[in-house]
Amino acid sequence: MRYYRIVSIIGIIYLCFNGVTSSVSSTEGYLLPSNIETFDLEYNQWHDINSITSIGANYVIEWNFTTSNPNVLIQLWAMDDPNFNDWKDGLTPSLYKHLISSRAGASGYYSVPNSEIWHVVFMNFDITEMETTTINTDVNFIEKPTQNDGGIGQDAGNSYSTSSQLTVGNFSSSGILIYDDLSDFYNFEVEAGDNLTITFSDFGESNCDFVLYKQGGTKVIEETDVIDNISMEYSVNDTGTCALGISKSNADDFTQVDYQFSIFKQSELTFNFPIEVKYILCVFSFLSISVVIVRKRKKERY
Ligand SMILES: [Ca+2]
User: Fold this and answer.
1) 38 CA distance to ligand 1 centroid (A)?
2) For the chain, what percentages of helix, strand and coil (3-state, to nearest 5) are there?
3) Rounded Cα distance, 13 and 148, in Å
4) If exposure means fewest CB atoms within 10 Å of the residue's CB, which of 163, 203, 234, 243 is most exposed?
5) pTM for the model
């Protein structure tokens, strides 16, 4: 009896340590939005980080990782839940996205195409090396910000031909550039003789390019790789439609830019004095007329 007990205990211990052989290092779910992790991947192992809950096309997956062993090629894949399960079962998934292969590590983002639980899978299938590596990673499932560029209730157009219409005079507003939204373009009506003062500010760490087109699509101002606030002035010669664009200088820069901008349009023939100045001018005019009348009456008396 004691002999069977000893054999049973040895068997349980063996199963605990050797009984489950798999190429899977772990399969875990993580709470939104951040998953900072360090894990080892032997050759032929993979590791899954997933969104737990369903996320839709208004989400992106931001990711970055570094590896301890520069010899090992790591593959990084994004799969929705049904395809992830097919892949685990040895079936060929119908929808999967190869994000990147990198020996040293990399960073980037992936725009979620459909509503599902989404998996980010790190794989060590480097058959030429067959070595273990430690991976440090940060994966975030992020809801994209709602855009209200120029107060139009959505993302502005991304090019001259798809620019969004604004009504300007003394206009100020804000906009957002983020992920694959690299440009915002606006258009507005002007008249010959108008003087435009256009400012952009608060675009943070990102370098941006600016362009102003006059009627007909000719560029009249172009500024590139701007890092500080910018002010541009233009005297309008032709009545028509101007178009204004802000773009990221670096197409790989997917960080969020919350920019402020203003478009001040003033006609050369219009003098818009402040109300205080208008009041002083009225009083001065009244006093001048009064003095002239009084002097005239004095002359008539003598
Ligand atoms: Ca935008």
Assistant:
1) 35
2) 20, 45, 35
3) 61
4) 234
5) 0.70
Cβ atoms of 177 and 256 closer than 8 Å: yes
Rounded distance from Cα 213 to ligand 1 centre (Å): 19
pLDDT by 10s per residue, the chain, length 302: 444 444 334 333 333 333 222 344 444 444 455 688 999 999 999 999 999 999 999 999 999 999 999 889 898 999 999 999 998 888 777 777 777 778 888 888 999 999 999 999 999 988 888 999 999 999 999 999 999 999 999 999 999 999 999 999 999 999 999 999 999 999 999 999 999 999 999 988 899 999 999 999 999 999 999 999 999 999 999 999 999 999 999 999 999 999 999 999 998 654 555 566 556 655 666 676 676 666 777 766 65
From the CA of 52, how far away is ligand 1's center (Å)? 29
Are residues 89 and 199 both part of a single domain? no
Cα of 123 to ligand 1 centre, how many Å? 35
Range of the domain at 188: 149-267
Evaluate whether residue 165 is within a structural domain.
yes
Q: Which of 112, 143, 174 finishes a domain?
A: 143
Let me know whether 63 and 154 are in one domain.
Answer: no
Question: Ligand 1 (ion): which residues have CB within 5 A?
Answer: 149, 155, 176, 181, 184
